[in-house]
Specification:
- The protein starts with 8 loop residues before the first strand and ends with a strand.
- With 311 residues, the chain is mainly beta.
- The strands form 2 sheets. It has a 19-stranded mixed sheet that branches. Strands 15-16 form a two-stranded antiparallel sheet.
- The radius of gyration is 22 Å and the shape is globular.
- The chain has one domain.
């Protein structure tokens, strides 16, 4: 008897044109580290009282898909998932400039297949979108990205979807890039940053209706972009950005060993909302700072991603 092994698992996806409907065509292989995609169903229990104290009725109610896909971010392979979390598409014009992705208002949905090759079983999740994205950067690690998925329904199959291969691009790391912080419109180098984590949250949720356990659509809220970073405590400059409520610009670049695939994450207008400085031992003291990204009228967004020109 064979049991499914994680090492024999694959993820793939295809973009839906109609919400919740898997279109014809090849799926795209999706490199991943771990995932926790699952279908959950609410329970609906009967309310009547019985003299023997035992429940007679328990049914399954509303269904929804949820879970995280954790990846090592790299050039190309996750660009459609970046579009999904930004509710927009890459702007590839002009051809002489980098492609740009800003926060928008148009959702993007996928069918995602989780296939266990050793037992030939596939779970197909439909009506899926990227509700949240978390990116973590620190020395001595890859740029870890967590896509938080919300979806509508799931089905089982013993047939794997035909897949197109993923790229051979190398993951981004914390050494092949830079970080700069400064006044709005004028960031400057800041090599004293030791780590940074930020999240994008769209607050997607199902819109349940009478007559169906699966949601016919998903609703979404504001684009909330927040993060934290730690830096060595060397002077008052960063703390004063908190004390004086100085609006700042934060720019992070990452790359792979080829140095040809730089992605830039730009927060054109942030507010620093904390600056905690503790003593954790005899070694260097660190400042831990939290920030929120706000709409910037010049850039027309609160968060922007740039990549090398592809068109």
């Amino acid at each position: 008897m064979a049991f499914a092994q994680g090492s024999r698992s694959t993820l793939s996806y295809i973009t839906e044109t109609t919400f919740g409907t898997t279109p014809a065509g090849n799926f795209q292989n999706l490199p991943f580290n771990t995932h926790s995609l699952n279908l959950t169903r609410d329970r609906v229990a009967g309310n009547e009282i019985q003299a023997d104290r035992m429940t007679r009725v328990d049914r399954q109610g509303n269904s929804q898909v949820g879970g995280d896909i954790v990846v090592d971010l790299r050039d190309g392979d996750f660009d459609e998932f970046l579009e999904s979390v930004m509710l927009n598409t890459w702007d590839t014009s002009p051809s002489s400039a980098p492609d740009v992705l800003k926060v928008g208002t148009t959702p993007k949905y996928f069918s995602i297949e989780d296939y266990a090759a050793d037992i030939d079983q596939a779970r197909l999740f439909t009506g899926c979108t990227v509700s949240t994205m978390g990116i973590s950067m620190a020395p001595n690690q890859m740029v870890t990205t967590t896509f938080g998925i919300i979806g509508s329904d799931m089905s089982m199959s013993a047939t794997e979807k035909t897949q197109d291969a993923s790229s051979s691009a190398q993951p981004f790391d914390a050494y092949s890039g830079d970080l700069a912080i400064g006044n709005v419109g004028s960031s400057s180098s800041a090599a004293i940053i030791t780590s940074i984590d930020f999240t994008v949250n769209n607050s997607f949720s199902p819109t349940f209706v009478i007559g169906s356990s699966a949601a016919p659509s998903l609703e979404y809220g504001m684009s909330q972009v927040e993060g934290t970073f730690t830096a060595y405590f060397e002077d008052a400059a960063l703390i004063n950005r908190f004390l004086n409520e100085t609006e700042s610009e934060l720019v992070i670049t990452v790359n792979d060993p080829s140095a040809a695939n730089e992605y830039e994450f730009m927060f054109p207008r942030i507010k620093v909302n904390s600056a905690d400085v503790g003593v954790d031992g005899p070694l260097s003291r660190l400042i831990t700072m939290s920030f929120v990204a706000l709409y910037d009228s010049t850039e027309g967004t609160n968060f922007k991603i740039s990549r090398p020109e592809t068109a």
